[in-house]
């Protein structure tokens, strides 16, 4: 455990991007490994532990808890459905939000295909996934995956813009 603790933690942290969750998943990994250590050849312990850690992380990310809790980084994208209440905003906030919305719309329209068309229909035109799938002639699951990837690309672009001087 002492030999591979940092490696397993790093693997977990790369998946979940949260130090506390990564610590919990590291513990779960070593508990599972301890219970099944006799099934693995000692020459492959390192690779096996990494695989167990990755599977623990994937299971955690697919769990019902994670689907109900906001994922890290989702706050970088504004909610496409429903506009903020203009009565509670100052004129400066309204102007900043409008310029950010314009910049975000530009980023969405600039996405490469197949993500650009899916993101434009969902985030800008507020079409449901089923309608997008029908309009583009793609399965709903494909549209959901492309939308997920488009949001990830946008999240990365927004983060890079915020970090740039």
* Biggest sheet details: none
pLDDT averaged over residues: 80
Number of domains: 2
Uncertain regions spanning at least 5 consecutive residues? none
SS summary, helix count: 8
CATH superfamily of the largest domain: Winged helix-like DNA-binding domain superfamily/Winged helix DNA-binding domain
Give me the count of strands: 0
Q: What is the annotated CATH architecture of the largest domain? A: Orthogonal Bundle
Strand fraction band?
under 5%
Helix content: 55-70%
N-to-C CA distance: 42 Å
Using the coordinates shown, work out and report the CATH topology of the largest domain.
Answer: Arc Repressor Mutant, subunit A
Order of helices and strands: HHHHHHHH
Quickly name the level 1 CATH class of the largest domain.
Mainly Alpha
Secondary-structure-derived class: mainly alpha
Q: What sort of overall outline do the alpha carbons produce when their principal axes are compared? A: elongated
Radius of gyration: 21 Å
Structure description:
The protein has eight helices and no strands. It has 165 residues and is an all-alpha fold. The protein folds into two domains: 5-68, Orthogonal Bundle (Rna Polymerase Sigma Factor, Chain: A); 75-163, Winged helix-like DNA-binding domain superfamily/Winged helix DNA-binding domain (Arc Repressor Mutant, subunit A, Orthogonal Bundle). Helix 1 (5-16) packs across helix 2 (19-36). The longest helix is centred in the C-terminal third of the chain and has 24 residues, at 140-163. The protein is elongated, with a radius of gyration of 21 Å. The N and C termini lie far apart (42 Å). The mean pLDDT is 80.
């Amino acid at each position: 455990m002492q030999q591979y603790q940092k490696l397993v933690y790093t693997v977990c942290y790369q998946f979940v991007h949260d130090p506390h969750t990564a610590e919990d998943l590291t513990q779960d990994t070593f508990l599972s490994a301890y219970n099944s250590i006799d099934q693995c050849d000692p020459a492959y312990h390192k690779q096996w532990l990494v695989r167990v850690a990755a599977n623990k992380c994937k299971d955690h990310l697919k769990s019902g808890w994670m689907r109900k809790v906001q994922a890290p980084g989702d706050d970088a994208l504004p909610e496409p459905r429903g506009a903020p209440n203009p009565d509670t905003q100052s004129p400066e906030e309204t102007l900043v939000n409008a310029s950010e919305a314009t910049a975000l719309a530009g980023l969405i329209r600039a996405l490469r295909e197949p993500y650009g068309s899916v993101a434009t229909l969902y985030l800008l035109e507020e079409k449901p996934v089923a309608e997008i799938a029908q309009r583009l002639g793609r399965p709903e699951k494909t549209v959901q995956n492309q939308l997920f990837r488009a949001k990830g690309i946008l999240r990365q672009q927004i983060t890079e813009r915020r970090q740039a001087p």
